[in-house]
Specification:
By secondary structure, the protein is mostly helical. It has 6 helices and 2 strands; from the N terminus they run ααααββαα. The chain has a two-stranded antiparallel ribbon. Helix 1 runs antiparallel to helix 4 and helix 1 packs parallel to helix 5.
Length: 191
């Protein structure tokens, strides 16, 4: 990290988080990337779609930088950005996300960290923000959803890790079933 350029550091971490999230789709079928794996319906492709609109909103609308992408009809379905319709392909959603990256990256590069913006859907007392606040907010949200994606991918096919070539797991072969059983016994003994 370069302490002399915090914007570049935050931007780099955002780029890494984006790539980690997209990697979670690699090698999965169309069904698997859309499959709701938890009671709330969270699914991998939906997380990507959601974050595309998050970036268009926070780095576009908030700073008066038009992005030219129509927002989904949240009045008709408040969860419309959390899942891909049958006629929305994986490629279309990934392209949407990458267009959001390009637009967001241009905003981040063009504006100073103290640039003022306004988040229209936040309360009046919190709506006035800086690029720095939004960069931290979107970085945190992206990493939060990358964590969701970690769990979803592990539930789908057992794949774990941060990105291709870096699983970020303990070295050596680990018998995960044995490890999980051990933790289950610890949890039961604690109650």
């Amino acid at each position: 990290m370069n302490a002399a350029d915090p914007k570049a550091d935050l931007h780099r971490y955002l780029r890494v988080a984006r790539e980690a999230l997209v990697w979670k789709l690699d090698g999965l079928s169309d069904y698997e990337v859309r499959r709701p794996m938890v009671a709330t319906g969270t699914n991998l492709l939906g997380l990507i779609k959601h974050l595309a609109y998050v970036e268009f909103g926070y780095f576009g609308t908030t700073f008066g930088r038009p992005h030219g992408v129509a927002e989904p009809d949240f009045d008709a379905d408040p969860t419309v950005d959390m899942w891909a319709a049958p006629d929305e392909s994986r490629e279309e959603i990934l392209d949407l996300y990458r267009r959001a990256w390009a637009h967001s990256d241009a905003t981040i590069e063009a504006l100073p960290l103290d640039a003022i913006g306004h988040v229209p859907h936040w309360s009046k007392e919190h709506a006035t923000v800086t690029l720095h606040q939004i960069l931290v907010h979107v970085l945190a949200e992206t990493n939060r959803h990358a964590g969701h994606a970690d769990i979803l991918r592990e539930l789908i096919d057992g794949t774990v890790g941060h990105r291709d070539g870096n699983d970020n797991m303990p070295p050596g072969e680990t018998d995960w079933r044995h490890y999980r059983d051990k933790l289950e016994q610890v949890a039961r003994s604690a109650s």
